[in-house]
């Protein structure tokens, strides 16, 4: 079971969109995937066409000391081979994590006990764009970090703060397996120059993927509660090389 976090401490980089679409892509090639939404916006449900206001158990019920929920009760079947563990009451989750801060390195091992027996090939976290106690627990728990980055100078410069975060947590930079340039516009000099800058910054490390182009079809799919693999055959093709990279990671 490979555990992956989609993380960037800057919002608006398309992190949730990539997490949902890559999770569905893996499911479509017969991997069993669990997507855990721990973004404060809870956008994964919206992007998968699931009513966020419907009464159901969520990650909150797993960490609520007054709840007897087990993980199977909190998981929704979103697509064939793709399950979703949504969240609710994010502020209370954060408070509970703060109450257990001394156990942060193993907190999710306890809260997500039972995952290993559920035969998932991939467990994918969609994280909030912040440096938070919840994200710290996730980063201790996962094997790999994927960083979506918008091809703008502030976003590229901001990557340094992610490395600072890992250093403060005493986590190995090798956890960062992919940096995914997102919302790329090849028609502009700025877009081309920023992509070149990003690639040169990580030259020799082989962690920068092919860029994901800015496409209106991706936005349209999201608004309709569909993934790009259910909406537009042409737009989905640009994700194929990234999926290949994901599958190849040991």
UniProtKB/TrEMBL annotation:
Pfam families: AAA_31
Domain AAA: 1-172
Protein name, per record: AAA domain-containing protein
Organism: Orenia metallireducens
Lineage: Bacteria, Bacillati, Bacillota, Clostridia, Halanaerobiales
């Amino acid at each position: 079971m490979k555990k992956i976090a989609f993380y960037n401490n800057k919002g608006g980089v398309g992190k949730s969109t990539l997490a949902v679409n890559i999770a569905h892509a893996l499911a479509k090639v017969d991997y069993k995937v669990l997507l855990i939404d721990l973004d404060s916006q809870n956008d994964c449900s919206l992007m998968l066409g699931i009513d966020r206001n419907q009464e159901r158990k969520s990650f909150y019920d797993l960490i609520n000391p007054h709840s007897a929920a087990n993980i199977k009760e909190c998981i929704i079947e979103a697509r064939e081979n793709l399950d979703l563990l949504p969240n609710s009451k994010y502020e209370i989750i954060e408070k509970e994590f703060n109450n257990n801060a001394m156990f942060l390195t193993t907190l999710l091992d306890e809260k997500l006990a039972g995952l290993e027996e559920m035969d998932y090939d991939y467990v994918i976290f969609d994280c909030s764009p912040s440096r938070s106690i919840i994200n710290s627990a996730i980063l201790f728990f996962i094997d790999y970090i994927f960083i979506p980055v918008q091809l703008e100078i502030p976003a590229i410069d901001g990557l340094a703060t992610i490395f600072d975060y890992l250093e403060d947590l005493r986590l190995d930079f090798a956890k960062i397996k992919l940096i995914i340039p997102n919302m790329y516009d090849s028609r502009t000099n700025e877009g081309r120059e920023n992509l070149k800058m990003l690639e040169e910054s990580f030259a020799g490390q082989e962690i920068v993927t092919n860029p994901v182009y800015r496409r209106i079809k991706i936005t349209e799919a999201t608004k309709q509660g569909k993934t790009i693999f259910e909406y537009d055959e042409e737009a989905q093709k640009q994700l194929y090389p990234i999926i290949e990279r994901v599958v190849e990671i040991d």
